Automatic annotation (TrEMBL):
Species annotation: Streptomyces naganishii JCM 4654
Gene3D superfamilies: Vaccinia Virus protein VP39
Region described as Disordered: spans on this chain: 1-24
Taxonomy of the source species: Bacteria, Bacillati, Actinomycetota, Actinomycetes, Kitasatosporales
Protein name: Methylase
Domain of life: Bacteria
InterPro entries, per database record: SAM-dependent_MTases_sf
Length: 276
């Protein structure tokens, strides 16, 4: 007798096919940050599975994520999940030990609960009103917290075509934790240059009265005040500006990350104030 499960048609992936734009090395800043802040959790996990959700028209970002995660967690595995079937077929020849590609969407078609879901430049093409439900769905798929672990991590954000400017939100099973701004310092005029790369949950909130707008305004002021440090290089200027900013904003990292042209801030401080 055939079981009902065997005869049930495959369910449709959750989500919408969008443009597949990607580039080699585009997500290096995000990859390195994940390896630094989540490497220990990945190392401790018995089966450290990471999902590169919406890897796009070519599998580069998934290949690179595996490489960078393995510097921190040698047993990490990456599953690239893409909603456009032709992009899955194009990626499959690149599958190898530790790297697999699957057709699917926000339901996350992997067995068990992954330690990491990375969604870069995916939600940007959805409506702002859809973000909260997608976050909730993805967070519910993460490895749960227990006495030894904070659980899995969802990293969702946006960058420019070649990854010079990048902003992402990190979420745990309990919800949003932090927002990270990361940039190539040599190409930065002022911190608010990063506004055009804010993730979908924040990009429409860069207006007076919203927290992210006040944050970028204060960051620009701190950057201007730190101008004398520019003679020691953009890195020293950034570090000085972030140090000043930390007097008024809950900066969650330290000089070791600031040196990379990064700063991470608690989500609650930047979260949208007015419901839409
Ligand atoms: C702009 S590309 C980003 C590629 C890569 N992540 C990057 O940052 O370079 C967005 C990709 O996400 C895919 N996508 C959109 N919604 C998705 C979903 N719900 N599940 C899986 N993939 C999705 C699109 O089909 C598209 O290929």
């Amino acid at each position: 007798m055939t079981s009902r499960a065997a005869t049930r048609p495959p369910s449709r992936p959750v989500g919408t096919v969008t443009r597949g734009t990607t580039n080699p090395n585009r997500l290096r800043r995000m990859d390195r940050w994940i390896a630094a802040v989540h490497g220990a959790e990945l190392r401790r996990a018995p089966d450290p599975v990471a999902v590169d959700l919406g890897y796009g028209a070519a599998p580069w970002t998934a290949v690179e994520l595996l490489h960078r995660l393995r510097t921190a967690a040698p047993h990490a595995r990456v599953v690239g999940v893409e909603i456009e079937p032709a992009r899955v077929a194009a990626a499959r020849p690149y599958a190898r030990e530790g790297l697999d590609f699957r057709h699917g969407g926000f339901e996350i078609p992997v067995r068990g609960r992954p330690q990491l879901i990375r969604a870069a430049n995916v939600l940007r093409q959805y409506d702002e009103a859809e973000v909260a439900a997608v976050w909730e769905r993805l967070c519910a798929r993460l490895a749960p917290a227990d006495g030894h672990s904070r659980g899995g991590l969802l990293v969702e954000g946006t960058c420019d075509e070649i990854g010079r400017r990048h902003v992402w939100v990190a979420l745990g099973p309990e919800g949003p934790r932090t927002v990270t701004f990361a940039t190539r310092l040599g190409s930065l005029n002022r911190p608010s240059d990063l506004a055009e790369r804010l993730p979908k949950a924040l990009i429409h909130r860069n207006v007076p009265g919203e927290a992210v707008h006040a944050f970028l305004r204060d960051f620009d002021r701190a950057w201007a005040a730190a101008a004398p440090y520019a003679s020691y290089g953009a890195r020293q200027r950034w570090i000085r500006a972030v140090r000043d900013l930390a007097a008024d904003w809950p900066v969650a990292d330290g000089p070791g990350r600031w040196r990379q042209g990064e700063v991470t801030v608690a989500w609650e401080a930047l979260a949208p104030r007015r419901p839409r």
